[in-house]
Amino acid sequence: xxxxxxxxxxxxxxxxxxxxPPTVRVTKTDEKxxxxxxxxxxxxxxxxxYPDNPQLAIDWSRFREGMLQLKPYFEQDNVRERxxxxxxxxxxxxxxxxxxxxxxxxLEGVRFRDTDAHYLDECYLLRDIAKSTNVSGVAGLALxxxxxxWVMRNVVLHEQVDQFAPPxxxxxxxYAGALERAVVFLGLLRxxxxxxxxxIAPPDxxxxxxxxxxxxxKTEKLHLFDTxxxxxxxxxxxxxxxxLEELQADASLGQRSKIDAARLQKMTATLVLPLQGLAPRMxxxxxxxxxHEAIVLHVDAGQIHANIAKAVAPMPVxxxxxxxxxxxxxxxxxxxxxxxxxxxxxxxxxxxxFAASSGPLANxxxxxxxxxxxxxxxxxxxxxxxxxxxxDLINKYDVHPREMFLxxxxxxxxxxxxxxxxxxKNDLFSGLAEDKxxxxxxxxxxxxxxxxxARLGSEDARQRGQGQYExxxxxxxxxxxxxxxxxxxxxxxxxxxxxNPKGTTIEDRIKATKPSxxxxxxxxxxxxxxxxxxxxxxxxxxHEKAARAQAAVDASLKPTDSAKERAxxxxxxxxxxWSSFYLSRLALDFIIEQGVEQAKIQPILxxxxxxxxMHRDTFRILNAKLRxxxxxxxxxxxxxxxxxxxxxxxxxxxxEKKGLMAALTAQTLAELRQHSGPEANALTKRIELxxxxxxxxxxxxxxxxxxxxxxxxxx
Length: 715
Prior knowledge:
This protein is 62% helix and 4% strand. By secondary structure, it is mainly α. The protein has four domains: 2-39, no CATH class; 57-342, no CATH class; 360-534 and 576-585, no CATH class; 587-715. The strands form two sheets. The protein has a six-stranded mixed beta sheet, with helices on both faces.
């Protein structure tokens, strides 16, 4: 009865309320909120934003979907009119940048292309990097230097597989040539609304030397950075950043950058203009997005040209837009890199090769081979299944953490990596390759796999059923594999199994359950790699925290004691991360010797990815040592840092003197040159890039130059 009375009262209240609508006062704040919610850019922003699932973060198609949502807006007549070039803009692009008339006309269209989606992906990635590295009080030239150092730390100097790759692809791979590093740096500067250019000198028997120039907003002077040397160009005091005027007055400042007085006289200021950013539709999109979030999408070529011309006068200023096949302009990199189905012009599967070159799959396959687990010894379906699971784990614990790091999601990245410790820190998976019991179990597993897949093709239903049962056992998951594969709750590891009435934890179930054969196989293939790679990633994240803390101290006229303490603690943690948890476990000389011995006995098609992996790992380790030297500088002082740098240089010289990688690279190149055809030519170019690492103007030489400059007092 009581519930009936209450219900009637509620019903009466609703009826009375319906007869007299309440008075609603609409404030200016409400009107503004309604206008924002009605904005066609809001839904696009939600589609563009970095998703919780990193798998989707590297899917460029979400930007295409967001652009489709904006299609009705851009088809309005007034928007079409705004998305046109003015007469002066059109003249500038056609005459000053020498873009083809047809391309300039296409820039005026309001229809977004697939290449625009990739360009937006690039801009948002650069914007998130700029946001995640933001330090209060750091602006202008100091901000440019901070971004420069970030690029030098996080894009290792080393060319492999391909050249002239767009910034987003370079950032996700983590290593590149000097020119690609420069284009990434200029992209970050755009997000900081700082103008920059390349200063290119004519070649002299080698690649053209160049610098990156950045305008200091306070003085309007052009300050210089060298992405091959990995350092800003320094004045005589070895501390402050030199300007173009100072270099012109004293050419010796460019000595380490291989720029002498004769080359300096012929230098040209060169604009790097991404094609998609020149379109007026990007300006309209940028303005629409600005009411929701700050991002730079449009490139005002005329204004940048005017600013640079003023800063470098009387040096000539050009726009690098020529599309020569041997040395294509950055303007065309994105279009020439993408396949036709994504709006580009490449038919060489560059995106696929580029992605494959950054992962450890070649080493994983070699590790499987060491326990007689190869493509020829397994049914094709079983081998493909094993590679598919391996590749899935590489994506989740190698590709995705890199994406999280780039977007500033460091804590989420660490939580993701914690999952992999179920495999890397579990002693049950240690030394399996030499374990006799494992070898016996593996032989039985392979035999069962052969029989099971054979039974699937039988006409006998009972045989097919038996085969299906055996396959379920072959690919059976255990608690460790469940943790690694199931990322339904990607923000944390579910330690408690709430569906279990006993309330046992995942840790309990891992201890109580014998590891499946599948997870033991995966451990043989990738446990060692991930154990080291996770330590490297965490050390890198700790280093960035220290760099931000130090930048805050340097930006303050009177830094507080607590700020200094935070920086000191951060540098100490970064130093321990690099030295104790990563580098102390690596003997580079041994790694190279062992890698060369393994690679030289392999067929050439297997040897090439192993050689590439060896080069990549070598320069990653050397990069880590350079980063450790910075930690030593802030924790132990300049003398200790110089001593450590001297030892690193000696190590590089030792690698060069032994010449093991260089010799095997040269041998492989000689073998390839005996063959002809598109495939052989593509492989030859890949090996030629590796060979260049050990030449007088190669990566190892520039690393030694970097070290010499640091020992001399450059910072």
